[in-house]
Amino acid sequence: MKEIAKLVVVLALICGISGFVLAYVKDLTAGPIEYAKIKNVKEPAVHSVLSGYDNDPIKDRVSFPVGNDKYGRPVSLVVFPAKKDGKTYAVAFEASGVGYKGPIGVMVGVDVNDNKLTGISVVSHSETPGLGARILESGFTEPFRGQDLSKDLTKDNIQALSGATLSTNGVVAAVNAARETLAKYRDKMVN
Amino acid sequence: MSFGDYMLFIVGAVLVNNILLAQFLGNCPFLGVSKRMDTATGMSMAVVFVITLAGACTWLVQYYVLIPFNIEYLQTIFFILVIASLVQLVEIIMQKTVPGLYRALGIYLPLITTNCAVLGVAIINIQKEFDFVQMLVFSFASAVGYGLALCLFAGIRERFALARIPKVFEGTALGLVTAGFMSLAFSGFAGLVGH
Amino acid sequence: MSLMKEFTKGFWELLPPFRLVLGLCPTLAVTTSAENGLGMGLATAFVLACSNMLISALRKIIPSKVRIAAFIVVVATFVVVVELTMQAYFYALYVKLGIFIPLIVVNCIPLGRAEAFASSNGVLASGADGLGIGLGFAISLFALGTIREIFGAGAFFGAHVMWSSYEPMGFLLKAPGAFVCLGLMLAAINTISARQAKRKLEAARLAAAQA
User: Fold this and answer.
1) Which of A138, C92, C159, C185 is 20 to 30 A from A73 via CA?
2) What distance in Å separates residue B183's CA from the closest CA in chain C?
C-alpha cells in the first residue's frame, strides 16, 4: 500500500511540476507567438490590401472581442489601421465565408471615408488546386478593388471564376461579412 | 459526407496517403518487426486495434477536456499519456479476458506506445478537424494501410533470406531501399483519387 | 569514463540514425532541405540533452515501476517547450516541420537514452551523452538534407548551387527518394566501418606478431 502511494505521489508531482512549467512558458511565449503569426501570415496580406499609409499597420493593430466561438471562448477581431498624418483613413481585417471545401479567410481592406474596398487577399482556404484555388490569383482579386461596400456585393460586380462558382461565392460572402462587421464595429476600428 | 465520399476517403487513407510509405509515420517498428511474416501480421493487428481506440480516446480528450479548459498547448503531453495508459489498460484487460489473443499480440503492445503512427494519426485527426465518425473511419483506414504495407514488406523481406546480398547492405540498409521502391509503387495509386 | 568520451560517442560509435537505428520517421520526413534537417536535428538535440539531465537527476526518486511513464512526461514537457519556442521565434520552420515536432516525444531516441543511459548515470555524464547523440542526429539529418536538396533541387539553403543545365532529380525530394537515399547512406557508413574494423584487426595482428 505504501509503495503504491509513493508511485502515485511521485507521478503526480512530476505531472504537476510539468504543468506549472509549461503554463509559465506558455505565458512567456504568448506574445511572441501572436506576433509571429501576424508577421508571417497576415503581414503580406495587409500590405497588399492597404496602400499610401505612413504608419506601421502591424504595430498599430487594435483588437477587441466580437463574441464567442462554438466552445464558448471569446474571439477577438484584429484590425490593422492605415493612417496618414495620424488619422485612420482605411482599415484591414480578416473575414470568412464558406467555399467549396471549407472556410475561406479573406483579408479585406476598406476605405472608411467612402466605404470602397481598397483590396482583398485570400489568407487561408482549402479549395481545389487549379480550380477554386484560383481565388488566390490577382486576376480574380483585382476587380474587387474600388467596389462600393455600402451595399451587399454580388457576383455580377466581379469576374466570377468559371468552374468554381462555390469558391467565388465564398469570397463574396466573406467580403459581405466584412461589410457587416465594419457596420457594427466602425467606432472601435476608427479612432 | 455521402457513401461515395467515404469510399474515396478510405482509399485515400489506405493507399494514396499511406501513413507509412507516404507520410513516414511508424518507421522504427516497420523495419524492426518486418523480418518474418507472422510477427508482421501480429503487429499489424495490434496496430489497427490500438490506433482506432487511441484515435477515439484522444479525440474525446481534445474536445471535452483540452478545448473547454483552454489548454490545447498541452495536447502533446495529454495525448501521449492517454495513449500510454490506454496501451497498458488494453494489455491488462486482454490478459485477463482473452488470453489467446494476448499471447498472439501481447508482446507487440508495449512497442506500440512509442510507435509514432499512433500519436501521428491522433494529431492528424485534430488538425483536419474531423468529426467523430470521420475520425473513426480515418483512424481505422490509416491503420489498415499501415498493416498492409507492413505485411507486404515482410513478404519481400522473407525472400532476402534466400538471396545473396552485399555485406554492407545487409539488414536495415537494404530494408530502406526496398521500402523506397514500395513507396514508389504506392505512389502509383495517386491517380485513384480525383483531383 | 570521461565526459569527453560520453560526448563524442554520438558522432560515430552510436551515431543516430545509422548506428543507433532509432528516430527514422523525422529523418525520412523532414530532410527535404538542409535547413529543415538542421532545425529538426537541433530541436531533438535540445530535448534529448535536457530530458537526459533531468531524468538522471530524478533517477533516485522515480520508482522503477512507473519509470517509463515518468520519462514520457519529462520528455513531453521539453517537447512542448520546444514547440512553443519555435512557434514564437522560428515560425516559418515550425510550419514546415509541422506534426514532426510533437512527434519528437515518440522519436525513441530520448526515451531510449533515458532508459539505457540516464537512468543509471550521473547528471553531467547524461547531459554529455544526450548532447553528443543529439548533435550526432542533427549532423546526420543535416547531411541527408544537404544531399537531397543539392541533387533533388539543385540548391543549398534555398540558394541555387548547381550549374544551369543541371536537371534536378525530383525523385530525391519525394517519399521514395527519402528511403532510397537513407538506405544508400547507411550502406556507405557500413562500408567505412567494415574497413575500419579490418584495419584494426590487422593492426592487432601486427602487434601480436611483433610481440
Assistant:
1) C92
2) 5
Contact A107, A91 (CB under 8 A): no
Q: Kindly give the interhelix angle for B132-160 and B3-11, rounded to the nearest 10 degrees.
A: 30
Q: Please tell me if residue A26 touches chain B, with a CB cutoff of 8 Å.
A: yes
Residues of chain A contacting B68 with CB distance shorter than 8 Å? 71-72
Cell 527519402 locates to C178
Q: For chain C, say whether B180 makes contact (Cβ under 8 Å).
A: yes
Residue B5 grid cell: 465520399
Residues in chain B with CB shorter than 8 Å from the CB of C94 are none
pLDDT of residue C163: 80
Chains contacting A (3+ CB pairs below 8 angstroms):
B, C
Domain ranges in chain B are 34-158
pLDDT of residue B195: 44
What HEC string does A20-46 produce?
HHHHHHHHHHHHHHHHHHHHHHHHHHH
Kindly indicate the confidence band of residue C54, based on its pLDDT and cuts at 50, 70 and 90: very high
Q: What is the pLDDT of residues B19-55, one digit of tens each?
A: 888 888 888 778 877 778 888 888 888 889 899 999 9
The C-alpha cell at B127 is 488538425
d(CA A160, CA A175): 14
What is the structure's pLDDT at B104?
72
**Stronger pLDDT, B139 or A161, i.e. the higher one:** B139
Quote the CA–CA distance of C134 and C132 in Å, as a whole number: 5
ipTM above 0.90, yes or no: no
- CA B38 to chain C, closest CA, distance in angstroms equals 22
Looking at the structure of chain A, the number of domains it has is 1
Angle between helices C123-153 and C175-210 (to 10 degrees): 120
